[in-house]
Amino acid sequence: MTIPFEVPAENTTDVAVPSRSTQVGSNPYVFVVGSPRSGTTLLKRLLDAHPLLAVTRETHWIPRFFERRVGLTADGRVTPALVERLFEHRRFSHLKLEPRQVEEAAIAFEDRPYSEFVSYLFELLAKRAGKPFVGDKTPPYVRKIDVLSNLWPQARFVHLVRDGRDVCLSMLKWRMAHRAAGRRKTWQEDPVSTTALWWEWLVRLGREAGARLPLSHYFELRYEDLVANPAQQCLQLCRFLDLPYAHQMLEYHKGKTRTGSDLSANGAWLPPTPGLRDWRSQMPAEDLRRFEAVAGRLLGELGYERGLNGASSEAARRADRMRRQFDGKPLPRNWEP
What we know:
By secondary structure, the chain is of the alpha/beta class. The protein has helices at 40-48, 62-67, 81-88, 99-108, 114-129, 145-151, 164-173, 191-211, 223-228, 230-241, 265-268, 279-282, 285-301, 313-325; strands spanning 30-33, 53-56, 133-137, 156-161, 218-222. It is built from 14 helices and five strands. The chain starts with 29 loop residues before the first strand and ends in a 12-residue tail after the last helix.
């Protein structure tokens, strides 16, 4: 069911540039993170529709290259080898930057910090988009908030959290599950319990890292709130990002929405729509039992209602065994059941 939008009183048509400086170093401006299948594509489209903010497709290479010093010196400075490694990465082409621009940037930024080089690439994206600010939507960066915030202390982080049971429903039907929860070694034995652990792992790591940031740099948003009242949540997002509210955010889908039973929600370019996944009616009882036995504590901490009153002793033993076998690293605090 699609709900009507109630546009906040602060709605404006003429968008003024905010006071924050657009000098090199302002970008990347914001990172959109969260467990995959949490609705981050919807959030990206809302933010990207803002007249002052462009949000890239998923990059995946930014913290990885820095941590592994790919094309960098031991102290994280740019070397000529970085360009070749970037062109080899399958995601880098998604930025659609001119190779010549990247090569010239690598020369100009040789022996300078990696963060300055990447910031310059984002400035090129900003120029192309005709917007002062550029963000990055890569959900798995929820595990890399500390790395990214150290590279760009000015960057903001929006962590989208969705009920893990609905995330699980989506994961079990996703053709790319092998790149997410399906990578864990227990997936073949029990994909539901594995997804519960994987979801808890990502959410807890993101929240722990967010707690180490200033309040002005970390914003936790519930998917359920976003689809129930997108206008109000967009207003809150704009306040957090120090951007004026823009009604265009709610119009991201106009002229793009498609119909067809074979289309996913993302492929259909739907407006914010509650109920696309609903564990109450769509999750089998055994799957619900397994999921809540594993991640019920986090569901409670987040304020989500439980479908069952506690776990049976058998389900609890299974959950404990699966938790001990989980191979995600690093593990968050309080990981033990």
